[in-house]
Amino acid sequence: METTAIAFIDGRYLPVAEANLNVMTHALNYGTGVFEGIRGYWNAAEEQLFLFRAREHFVRLHESARIMAIALPYSVDDLCQISLEIVRRSAYRQDIYLRPIAYKSGLGIGVGTAGVADGFLLFATPMGNYVDTERGLRCCVSSWRRTSDNAIPPRAKVTGGYANAALAKYEAATNGYDEAIMLAENGVVAEGSAENLFMVRRGSLITPPISDNVLEGITRATLMELARTELGIPVVERTIQRTELYTADEVFLCGTGAQVAGIVEVDRRPVGVGRIGPVTAALQSRYFDLVHGVSRDRAPWRLAVYEPARV
Ligand SMILES: Cc1ncc(COP(=O)(O)O)c(C=O)c1O
Question: Which of 59, 78, 107, 303 would staple 74 via disulfide (CB 3.0–4.6 Å)?
Fold first, then answer.
């Protein structure tokens, strides 16, 4: 069955090709939007598509909107319903990615946002891997610093803030690396260009605290919970210094896009023995089972798109 991808914009469901913005839109000119990225995983055996932790993403979208003073007239429940409607109307039966954006939609020149109109759109697109999750990533520490809370807050997913990530990713890719690890302005490890970072060192799973200029990642929270409750490994939120990446047993990145991706090299030094380590592998395998609904536990984390298949 041939279907058309449907987007939601200005309160209407439209084919993606017709869901266009005016060239004078404030958010396009000044990066004044806030967004989310939510994955949907197709479970072929159950003929079901699961949106992973959609509610948590929409709670964070509301927080980002508050920071940027963008009005978002839809509740978390409304946003879940709009997501379900889009995916159903588009009839996706594959892994997808949802992208909601709340943005300054007024037309005109001038960076100020007070009194400028707000808009909201949401679209979905098929999506496979964002970074390789099997081979192990080769990363560099970026020469670009992560923006700080008093510049462009990394806690908020602000469209304009991703120029910072784009600079780091461009530098990494053109220097032959898979990903960039970004330090905060004060030189401590923050996160990947669009992923949170964990390391395993001396038997603990360690990640920078949310006050070290990182996004409060939903995958980060998921993995901390799994590590604490299932792996029995101590989870520590503390500042990480750059050289700890060189002496760690394991380092990995995580995020909705990246999922759980082991790092095998940082700045041309092998991480641990230069292969994806056991803690990373265990968390990755559990994560993939959970997001696909292969493991049936933690059901509140999965929002099923379709009616359960008839048997
Ligand atoms: C800068 C940044 N850090 C971390 C993450 C991971 O966050 P999450 O796990 O909520 O997708 C993302 C991706 O959304 C990101 O853009």
Answer: 78
